Amino acid sequence: MYDVKLLIDGAWSASSDGQWSPIVNPATEEQVGRHAIATSEDLSRAAEAAERGFRLWRRKTSLERSAILRGAATRLRENARAIGEDITRENGKIIGESIAEVNWAADTLDWYAEEGRRAYGRIIPEKMPDMHQYVAKEPVGPVLALSPWNWPLVTSTRKVAPALAAGCSVILKPAEETPSAAVALAKALLDAGLPSGVLGIVMGIPGEISRQLIAAPQIRKVSFTGSVPVGKLLAAQAAEAGLKRMTLELGGHAPVIIWDDADVDDAVKKLIPVKFRTSGQVCSSPSRFFVHNAVRERFVARLVEGVAALRLGNGMDDGVTLGPLTSERRLNAVGRLVEDAVSKGAKLCAGGQRHGTVGYFFEPTVLDSVSDAATLATEEIFGPVIPVIGFDSYEEVIGKANASTLGLSAYVFTRSLEMANRFSRDIESGMVGVNTLLVSMVEAPFGGVKESGYGQEGGIEGIDPYMVNKFVSQAFA
Ligand code: NAD
């Protein structure tokens, strides 16, 4: 049993009224620890500390900030196994994925350590004599970062690293299910020399924390990764609280198009590990499988073989390739979506139900001939379920793919250059993979269109949301 405390002004503490909430291992349903529940007084202190931290941190040189981010990256890598075990214990994903997540977070810190040094602004060539005019990039101010439970370390680092690199202070609220990764990130940064108050960690009742801190005068920017309904609520609150800037990375319902000329075996080989990563609880996960009717039967048969080879179990155990869902809420939601699809005519080809009676395990599931009327045809699945929908023409499939209110990532498998180009142009989506599922990497922007949100994380674009442009126009005399 362990305690996850609040980090306020450089000190780890219980909440001011001593309230705690349990942390549960989704593979065993046992309580493994508890986290503090921040009070309103704790949140006020965190906001004041963030303001002081900002005034101090923005005056550091880019090199000083860069060295601290790099130092934190090294510390994460050195402790990758232990941090990975914490992630698996709280989230359920298999340990190999958790360790890979730690290394990805370290790479993100390294990337923004350098991007901060390149936040140049620009000088405008003289338009009138004896004038000096330039655009300076300045940190936006104290940031409220709200991260989810599916990638607890990477999603937190994608906000904290660029914000710190830009010169902002941050209050990070990790998801209450998986708070240890945020603690590991904060410890790495503090060990590397981050001054007190520059990073705070709070957790407790999400609605109360976001309401108070979004409205807090010290907070100038909010970044949220999570669901569409919560994103809309927070965006409204941020507007009301003084048109505060927002980055929203919300859900996805990624279409995968398997064209009739695709290498079906290769596509399935690539799709299975990515689809079942983190038990399908990934916003960029392939989610709606549109398969040309000429190859659908073969594709479904390969999928069923691939799924049969997965080993469901505790993510900490050797040989396990698929862990549980992270919460009972997700287990019930996924079960309901599958039942609904079957009741509306889908053919159950593999899985379809909860696995065992202890832990939030759901069988890897393949559904064929899913009707447009099924709820999962329009609603994000966020679980280990593959719905296959047949099609015959490009117009039909691009229409269905774009009918979603979400547009985060999309994939096509084809040997045709023309098809690859058409799809990449026509699809309404923030990221596109052609014969690959690799659309998320430190070097590239990650973010969606439509209700998937706005603003991007990652790449050279990922630091912009934490800076404002200031134009200075100066006459010599
Ligand atoms: P949910 O809507 O209950 O919560 C989503 C997240 O928002 C959670 O981390 C929760 O703690 C937080 N949250 C809820 N209310 C909040 C509030 N008022 N203020 C601040 N934070 C608040 O959904 P869920 O069951 O936890 O997750 C499933 C859905 O969330 C899926 O549909 C998925 O799209 C979305 N999700 C997306 C991502 C992503 O990477 N984009 C990550 C996790 C969840």
Please explain how this structure is put together.
The protein is of the alpha/beta class. The chain has 2 domains: 2-250 and 452-474, Aldehyde Dehydrogenase, Chain A, domain 1 (3-Layer(aba) Sandwich); 254-442, Aldehyde Dehydrogenase, Chain A, domain 2. The protein is built from 14 helices and 23 strands. The chain has helices spanning 40-57, 62-78, 80-91, 95-115, 152-166, 180-191, 206-215, 228-240, 264-275, 296-308, 328-343, 375-378, 394-402, 417-426, and strands at 2-4, 6-8, 11-13, 20-24, 31-36, 122-124, 131-139, 143-146, 170-173, 199-201, 221-225, 245-249, 254-258, 286-292, 347-350, 365-368, 385-391, 406-407, 409-413, 431-434, 449-450, 453-454, 467-475. Strands 15-16-17-14-13-19-20 form a 7-stranded mixed β-sheet, sandwiched between helices. It has a 6-stranded mixed β-sheet with strand order 10-9-8-11-12-22, with helices on both faces. Helix 2 (62-78) runs antiparallel to helix 5 and helix 5 runs parallel beside helix 6. The chain starts with a strand and ends with a strand. It binds nicotinamide-adenine-dinucleotide. Nicotinamide-adenine-dinucleotide binds at residues 146, 148-150, 175, 206-207, 210, 225-227, 229-230, 233-234, 249-251, 283, 329-330, 380, 382.
